[in-house]
């Protein structure tokens, strides 16, 4: 691909390899399993595959704790398998986006092993080491250098008894944060990135990349609950973040013989900051993953559930559309390996599962930006019916359960939150067919397959023209073939309507109108549609509906796209 802007009409598909397809019967997905399933991706028509980590890892955080950035974990295969995947994707006109996890390494990475080995090891300053708080002894309660709480519960500091110093880990204690203030660290990361580009990969999804610049004075955070404080204001979008990303662009991404696609995962990023990160003139990243729309249905923490509020969702997404309308670019997602299944969260995973899954696809893919399809989203896969805590495997969920129950929370309430929002919901194996374990493995799957794989699976969807899968295929094709979908101006309509999501897209003399009924009751959109009576119905998730969608009357969970010129 030489056209510099090919990516503005692209759709990215995220593969979580551990749960995608297992080729050797060990119950864990692998690269050869993925290579064997490329027809599915080609049917969908996606352009790029974002591959979650396949690197050597102790698997403390499901591969986001990396012990060797330039190899493949034997559980997933070999570097030869990865080279074969790159070639196979390129042959089909698709690209490969690797997951770049460089805010932290595994504590088993040789860099950290050296850094920890002694106070004067040359790599000591590759991580954040600090003595106990002034006037306190190592190991004393509260002696940690700051009061910050980890994303995975507990303190963000771990005491290393040998040296009597603490090291920083925003995530698990087996994920020590790299010290990006140290130019040697930055150079080592850039060299590794160039090594992957030389191997033929086409882009990077950058894990929590806005955490790499921190307030080096390491101030305490505000204590909202319990005894630990909120460190996020001191580690998100820190003072040198734009400097580091601009340097990374200069040192790695610029001057290549073809476009390198980048997306920065940025917890806590605002649309104002995203404008700076994605302004092409600034040459930092192409787009960012915001979490703002993922926060409309919970209070301070992801476990404090709130009911879904469509107005809140539209307000956030509308603001991001407006904010990046003229400069910069949006990413668009409902799902990934960290979020519960959208059809269970924002749709209706019971009677209206298929229709509401198609509605969610229509709404997202008709926004301006690059859509990301997470494995199984195109099948309308749902949350899993988890039972007790023994059903869960994700460190984030297990640590939260232990800490919350330990602090006196009702175990049933905590379990209800885990069942609704736990990351394991996104990590149950891809459902390929109705056979045992959904065709994911011939062995015992590392995490149980959803029992509904008997009816929710790729094989059944492929032969059903009305399936969620074929609806997603149509959405991808629309983006490739109808310029107003990728490039048209976005205008939100009915911003305060609690049931109808409505907006237009306009480019030159073409205009689209998207109407979506987020509910199980028929409804009439409160819009004057006289100018749309002759419009073309470009897409409708209800075949043979009783009403003409151009009247604005919408059946339960109906989503339509009208086009007029
Ligand atoms: O996620 C960053 C992150 O912020 C999430 O952990 C989020 O806070 C949580 O899941 C609630 O939504 C990235 C990776 O996507 C995640 O899988 C890793 O666990 C994390 O970074 C550490 O690498």
Explain what this protein looks like in three dimensions.
With 565 residues, the chain is an alpha/beta fold. The protein folds into 3 domains: 6-106 and 183-471, Alpha-Beta Barrel (TIM Barrel), CATH 3.20.20.80; 110-168, Oligo-1,6-glucosidase, Domain 2 (Oligo-1,6-glucosidase, domain 2); 488-564, Golgi alpha-mannosidase II (Immunoglobulin-like, Sandwich). It is built from 16 helices and 18 strands. The strands form 4 sheets. It has an 8-stranded parallel β-sheet with strand order 9-8-7-3-2-1-11-10, with helices on one face. It has a 5-stranded antiparallel β-sheet with strand order 12-13-14-18-16. Strands 4-6-5 form a 3-stranded antiparallel β-sheet, with no helix packed on it. Helix 5 packs parallel to helix 6, helix 10 (353-365) packs parallel to helix 15 and helix 11 (395-406) packs antiparallel against helix 12 (411-421). The longest helix is centred in the middle third of the chain and has 16 residues, at 183-198. The chain is globular, with a radius of gyration of 24 Å. The two termini are 31 Å apart. The mean pLDDT is 97. Residues 14-427 form the Glycosyl hydrolase family 13 catalytic domain. GO terms for molecular function: alpha-amylase activity. Belongs to the glycosyl hydrolase 13 family.
């Amino acid at each position: 691909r030489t056209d510099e802007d090919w990516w503005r009409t692209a759709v990215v598909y995220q593969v979580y390899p551990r749960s995608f397809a297992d080729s050797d019967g060990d119950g864990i997905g692998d690269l050869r399993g993925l290579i064997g399933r490329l027809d599915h991706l080609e049917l969908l028509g996606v352009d790029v595959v974002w591959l979650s980590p396949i690197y050597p890892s102790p698997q403390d955080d499901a591969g986001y704790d990396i012990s060797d950035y330039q190899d493949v974990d034997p559980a997933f295969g070999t570097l030869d398998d990865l080279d074969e995947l790159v070639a196979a994707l390129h042959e089909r006109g698709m690209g490969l986006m690797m997951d770049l996890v460089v805010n932290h390494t595994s504590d088993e990475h040789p860099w950290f092993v050296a850094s920890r080995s002694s106070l004067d090891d040359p790599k000591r300053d590759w991580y954040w080491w600090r003595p106990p708080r002034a006037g306190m002894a190592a190991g004393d309660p509260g002696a940690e250098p700051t009061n910050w709480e980890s994303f995975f519960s507990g303190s963000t500091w771990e005491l290393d008894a040998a040296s009597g110093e603490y090291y920083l880990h925003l995530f698990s204690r087996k994920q020590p944060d790299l010290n990006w203030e140290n130019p040697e660290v930055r150079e080592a990361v850039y060299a590794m990135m160039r090594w992957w580009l030389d191997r033929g990969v086409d882009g990077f999804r950058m894990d929590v990349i806005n955490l790499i610049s921190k307030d080096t004075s390491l101030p305490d955070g505000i204590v909202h609950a319990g005894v630990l404080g909120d460190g996020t204001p001191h580690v998100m979008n820190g003072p040198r973040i734009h400097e580091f990303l601009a340097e990374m662009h200069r040192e790695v991404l610029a001057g290549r013989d073809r476009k390198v696609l980048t997306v920065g995962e940025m917890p806590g990023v605002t649309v104002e900051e995203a404008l700076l990160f994605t302004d092409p003139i600034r040459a930092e990243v192409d787009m960012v993953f915001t979490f703002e729309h993922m926060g409309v249905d919970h209070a301070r923490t992801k476990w404090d559930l709130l009911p879904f509020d469509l107005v809140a969702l539209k307000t956030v997404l509308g603001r991001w559309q407006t904010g990046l309308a003229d400069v910069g670019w949006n990413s668009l997602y409902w799902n990934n390996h960290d979020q519960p299944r959208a059809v269970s969260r924002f749709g209706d995973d019971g009677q209206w599962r298929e229709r509401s899954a198609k509605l969610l696809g229509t709404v997202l893919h008709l926004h301006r930006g690059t859509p990301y399809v997470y494995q199984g989203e195109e099948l309308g896969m749902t949350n899993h019916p988890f039972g007790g805590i023994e059903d869960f495997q994700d460190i984030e969920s297990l640590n939260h359960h232990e800490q919350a129950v330990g602090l006196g929370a009702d175990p049933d309430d905590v379990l209800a939150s885990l069942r609704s929002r736990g990351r394991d919901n996104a990590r149950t194996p891809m459902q390929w067919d109705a056979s045992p374990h959904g065709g994911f493995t011939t062995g015992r799957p590392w995490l149980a397959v959803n029992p509904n794989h008997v009816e929710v699976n790729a094989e059944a969807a492929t032969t059903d023209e009305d399936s969620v899968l074929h609806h997603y295929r149509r959405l991808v094709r629309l983006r490739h073939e109808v310029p107003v979908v990728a490039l048209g101006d976005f205008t939100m309509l009915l911003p305060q309507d609690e049931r109808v999501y409505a907006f237009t897209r306009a480019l030159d003399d073409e205009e689209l109108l998207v109407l979506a009924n987020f509910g199980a009751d028929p409804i009439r959109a409160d819009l004057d549609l006289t100018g749309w009576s002759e419009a073309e119905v470009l897409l409708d998730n209800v075949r043979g509906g009783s009403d003409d969608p151009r009247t604005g009357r919408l059946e339960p969970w109906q989503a339509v796209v009208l086009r007029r010129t």
